[in-house]
Amino acid sequence: MASISDVIENFLKQLMHETNGVVEIQRNELANYFNCVPSQINYVIATRFTAERGYIVESRRGGGGYIKIRRININNKSSYLMHIVNSIGDSITQQDAEAFIKNFFDYEAVTEREAKLMLVAISDKIISVPQPTRDRLRASILKNMILSLI
User: Fold this and answer.
1) Is there a cis peptide before residue 132, judged by omega within 30 degrees of 0?
2) Cα separation of 4 and 16, whole Å?
3) Which of 19, 56, 70, 118 lies in the 20 to 30 Å Cα band around 77?
4) Residue 150's pLDDT is what?
5) What residues in the chain have per-residue pLDDT under 70?
6) CATH level 3 topology of 4-71
7) According to CATH, what is the number of the domain 77-149?
8) Contact predicate 127/141, CB 8 Å
9) 45: Cβ–Cβ under 8 A, 6 or more apart, which residues?
10) Beta bridge partners of 60
11) Residue 28: helix, strand or coil by DSSP?
12) Under a CB-based contact definition with an 8 Å cutoff, are residues 103 and 53 in contact?
């Protein structure tokens, strides 16, 4: 049996499919629909609709507040990769970097060979400097590899 998080995720993905990759929701209304607390909606959005998974999330607070979830357009490889470069920030963990690279391959933005080379280059085994320098160096390496593909 699927968890409530899985059900909410699938519901939002179905809505996105029906609305050309963009859905705008009100958190409280969605929580009422699923008979759950609003923080459950926040959890699903924060963990299942991340940049690493190919989504952009915008939110506005207040009475008329909303959450907009948009699937990144992967038909334009350069735009997709630039979005990722901009979302990486100054530091990235090995796990998050691996998630990005897996998506690059899944979305055919990189070849299998390129993905394997990227995974090796961002590995903790290769970047053998102390934290937090390691994650900053990893972010710089990953961004430069991505920019070389554009």
Assistant:
1) yes
2) 18
3) 19
4) 80
5) 62-65, 73-75
6) Phenylalanyl-tRNA Synthetase; Chain B, domain 1 (3.30.56)
7) 1.10.1200.150
8) yes
9) 57, 67, 69
10) 66
11) helix
12) yes
